Amino acid sequence: MEVSVSLTEKKRFLRWFLKSHKLKKREGRWILNYLLGEDRALKNVKFIEHAEFCPRGLYLSCHGTKGAPLTFFKGKIRTTDGDKSFHDLRMNLADPIYLELDYKESQRCSRLALVKEENPYLPEDYYVNEEEKGKASQWLDLQLLIQQKEQLSIQIDQAIDNRDETRFRELSTQYVEVEKRIKNQEALG
To answer: Reduced to 3 states, what is the DSSP secondary structure of residue 103?
Structure first.
């Protein structure tokens, strides 16, 4: 779902931000002031998280945060040069720019929440941690074993119908082994 944030909302947020926070690099302040005065550029600004995944992103951080002061991303290029960022912004007014502002309490800021949009370039599994990946993998393994057990059951029935004792014993051994693996897998989960 695409959210449309009005120019008025973006300007209100940027004015508040510039009054309330001190960026680590003055070039970041210049860029934000430029955006306030250039509606053609500001209408293409998207406030997001994780600008590094965007085709054209700008990350600005304030004092009191751990991030780099200013980082501009364009394609595979990454630069901390504020002048290059500013130049690209001015020369490409019609192109979307994904802006990430890092400041204390940004995660809980209601003002940012009003203008923040979902990052369409964030990998689908970005927020999935290793523990969740492991659980998902175990669950998939269990489902495959259950399916294998069901197939063996069908094949065992066919062997009985065909009075094929050798095949029946072979499949029964496999069935017992799969049942053990299922129990082990369930014990892990």
So the answer is: coil
